[in-house]
């Protein structure tokens, strides 16, 4: 039986009952032979058991190789982090392969009600975390000092993390004036004295909800950069982001702010999927997720610094994990001949 | 029997409410009851192997948090292009979805939004 036929046969069979150990090993051999970065894609459609998925994940990890770690820009240069971060809302089956790849930053760890199994037993100093502190969102009082303080303290009591590396004001501020009130920063300073947080940052969304006066991104980002107190910034960025917005992100990066890109797929997935030439340029034909990751990670400031130090990406299954995390893999970039990304990841 | 919300399209990235499920290609307004039913269906479609439908619902829930008003409520109808409310109707229904997400994810992410909704709902019923 040809390999494609074998895979199709297993896809059909697995709908009725789990495939046998022998059948799984055969499928995994076919998938591994398909090439690095194609393992989960080849197994797609076959319903695997939890242990089979874990074994397939190990094969994906071996193919992608350990991810590189780079300084989180100059404000936090002691933090060497991978170009993609874990998010608290990932499918938790993906935590173990992510850790095996060396991914060492967890976004929104503050939302963990308890420490996930994959993190139990790890040295707390072996990975970095942020907490997104919610009192800056609309409908809530952006000057609620006590609510912000209590959110951090109570979350540490629940999940046992001891501290967060980054305190991120979540959704960011709604106007330069609200940022300049400085309430979030006062809460951060108290928590830092208590040893509960280490660096101050923001997850700045571009507001245009019904209760908000629309402020364009540059108008919100610039005061934050110029204040000198924001050490880390997480922003909406993807293929298609305007040059004006990209220029202000470059200012932040040049100022030493640790930059994280978010909403990469929701903002750029459609455009990338409809642009086969760009996917080819990114050496990721037919893989918009990987193309997007490579696109974002290879962007530079006018002085040649990485525009973004890391990215967050919503990952729900092993195939998307392989595709997107593969975009941050140095081993895959070398194999695919993406010299620009290799240079960026080795910087 | 509850009517199924049929997702016909997803809102484009340039809309204020990007990547929202839509009942038709370019609706002028989106009804919150329809949206919440669509999100519930996405949450129910998740499996241990694939939580992608849940991710899509989560993205919308993240955006809904930013749409919560100072009254702790959300618009019953809104324009997905601009995010602006249409009409005067207000609802606390998204808080129920957020409580469900909290259970599914064992997460505290929506705690503050839910607390605000419940506090205002209690105050308005007194």
What's the helix and strand layout?
The complex is a heterodimer of chains A (347) and B (126).
Chain A: H1 3-14, H2 21-33, H3 39-43, H4 50-64, E1 70-72, E2 76-81, E3 86-87, H5 95-100, E4 105-107, E5 128-133, H6 145-159, E6 164-171, H7 176-180, H8 183-193, E7 197-204, H9 217-227, E8 232-236, H10 243-254, E9 258-262, H11 264-273, H12 276-281, H13 288-297, E10 310-311, H14 318-326, H15 330-336, H16 339-346
Parallel strand pairs in A: 3-4, 4-5, 5-6, 6-7, 7-8, 8-9, 9-10
Antiparallel strand pairs in A: 1-2
Chain B: E1 9-10, E2 21-22, E3 30-31, H1 32-44, H2 52-66, E4 74-75, E5 77-78, E6 90-91, H3 94-105, H4 111-125
Antiparallel strand pairs in B: 1-2, 3-5, 4-6
Helix pairs in contact in B: 1-2, 3-4
Can I get a quick summary?
The complex is a heterodimer of chains A (347) and B (126). Chain A has 347 residues and is α/β, with parallel strands linked by helices. Chain A has helices at residues 3-14, 21-33, 39-43, 50-64, 95-100, 145-159, 176-180, 183-193, 217-227, 243-254, 264-273, 276-281, 288-297, 318-326, 330-336, 339-346, and strands at 70-72, 76-81, 86-87, 105-107, 128-133, 164-171, 197-204, 232-236, 258-262, 310-311.
């Amino acid at each position: 039986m040809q390999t494609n036929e074998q895979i199709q046969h297993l896809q059909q069979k697995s709908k009725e009952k789990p495939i046998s150990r022998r059948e799984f090993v055969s499928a995994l051999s076919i998938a591994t032979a398909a090439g690095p970065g194609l393992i989960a894609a080849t197994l797609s459609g076959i319903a695997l058991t939890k242990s089979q998925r874990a074994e397939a994940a190990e094969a994906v990890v071996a193919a992608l190789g350990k991810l590189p770690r780079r300084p989180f820009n100059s404000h936090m240069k002691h933090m060497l982090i991978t170009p993609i971060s874990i998010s608290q809302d990932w499918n938790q089956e993906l935590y173990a392969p992510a850790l095996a790849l060396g991914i060492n930053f967890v976004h929104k760890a503050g939302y963990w009600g308890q420490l996930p199994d994959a993190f139990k037993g790890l040295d707390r100093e072996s990975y970095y975390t942020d907490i997104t502190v919610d009192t800056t969102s609309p409908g809530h009082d952006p000057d609620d000092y006590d609510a912000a303080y209590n959110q951090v303290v109570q979350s540490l009591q629940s999940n046992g993390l001891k501290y967060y590396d980054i305190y991120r004001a979540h959704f960011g501020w709604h106007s330069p004036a609200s940022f300049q009130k400085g309430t979030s920063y006062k809460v951060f300073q108290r928590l830092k004295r208590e040893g509960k947080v280490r660096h101050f940052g923001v997850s700045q969304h571009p507001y245009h909800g019904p209760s908000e006066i629309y402020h364009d991104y540059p108008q919100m980002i610039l005061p934050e950069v110029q204040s000198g107190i924001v050490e880390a910034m997480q922003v909406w960025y993807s293929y298609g982001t305007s040059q004006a917005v990209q220029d202000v992100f470059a200012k932040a990066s040049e100022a030493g702010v640790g930059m994280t890109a978010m909403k990469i797929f929701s903002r750029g997935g459609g455009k990338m999927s409809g642009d086969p030439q760009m996917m080819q340029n990114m050496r990721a034909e037919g893989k918009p997720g990987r193309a997007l990751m490579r696109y974002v990670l290879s962007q530079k400031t006018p002085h040649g610094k990485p525009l973004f130090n890391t990215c967050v990406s919503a990952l729900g299954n092993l195939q998307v994990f392989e595709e997107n995390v593969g975009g941050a893999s140095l081993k895959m970039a070398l194999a695919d001949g993406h010299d620009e990304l290799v240079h960026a990841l080795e910087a | 029997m509850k009517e199924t919300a049929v997702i016909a399209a997803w809102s484009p990235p340039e809309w204020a409410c990007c990547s929202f499920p839509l009942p038709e290609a370019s609706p002028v307004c989106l009804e919150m009851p329809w949206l919440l039913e669509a999100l519930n269906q996405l949450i129910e479609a998740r499996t241990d192997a694939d939580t992608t439908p849940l991710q899509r619902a989560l993205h919308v829930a993240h955006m809904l948090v930013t749409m919560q008003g100072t009254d702790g409520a959300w618009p019953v109808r809104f324009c997905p292009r601009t995010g602006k409310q249409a009409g005067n109707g207000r609802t606390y229904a998204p808080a129920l979805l957020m409580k469900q997400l909290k259970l599914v994810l064992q997460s505290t992410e929506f705690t503050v939004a839910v607390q605000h909704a419940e506090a205002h709902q209690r105050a308005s019923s007194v």
